[in-house]
Amino acid sequence: MNVLLVDDEEELVSAIAERLELRGFTADFVTSGKAAVAKCREKRYDLVVLDMKMPGLSGLETLEILAADHPGMPFIMLSGHTEVRQCNDTGASRVCYLVKPAKIDDLIETMRHLSPA
Questions:
Q1: Phi–psi pair at 49, nearest 5 degrees
Q2: Cβ partners under 8 Å of residue 31, min gap 6
Q3: With contact defined as beta carbons under 8 Å apart, do 58 and 86 qualify?
Q4: What CA–CA distances, in Å, run from 10 to 6, 14, 89?
Q5: Mean pLDDT of each 10-residue bin along the chain, 117 residues long
Q6: Where are the alpha helices (DSSP H) in 43-103?
Q7: Domain limits of the chain?
């Protein structure tokens, strides 16, 4: 699975990418919504993991742009501001929400849940 991780906390997002790669995933990361939009225009991803609260484009704003550009792409939204762990079908895309910091096993389980394969 080819995954894009988006979080303004570079140490955190790079560590998650490294842990996913050790488990057999291909994981790129960027530190802004604007960079995520650009990266998704140059490379195809199976899933995007987005932090909800980022400077510039928020996670939700980034989600809206990416969902419009890539219908059907699944997303995982990470937030430290909610106690919710749920998945929704927004019509164009499937979106799951996890509490940040998410345990790597919970993240992987959710990624597999969203995976089309």
A1: -105, 120
A2: 6, 7, 8, 9, 10, 13
A3: no
A4: 9, 6, 29
A5: 95 95 96 97 95 91 93 89 55 77 91 79
A6: 59-69
A7: 2-114
This prediction has a pTM of 0.89
Q: What is the pLDDT of residue 72?
A: 87
Tell me how far apart the alpha carbons of residues 108 and 56 are, in angstroms, rounded to a whole number: 28
DSSP state of 56: S
Q: What are phi and psi of 28, to 5 degrees?
A: -100, 160
Q: Strands of the chain (E only): list them.
A: 2-6, 26-30, 47-51, 75-79, 86-89, 94-99
**What does the alpha-carbon distance between residue 66 and residue 31 come to, in Å, rounded to a whole number?**
15
pLDDT value for 116? 61
Which residues are registered as beta bridge partners of 5?
29, 49
Return the DSSP state at 102.
P
3: tokens are: 């995954």
CATH number of the structural domain 2-114: 3.40.50.2300
Tokens representing 113 are 């849940």
Using CA atoms, how far apart are residues 67 and 73, in angstroms rounded to an integer? 7
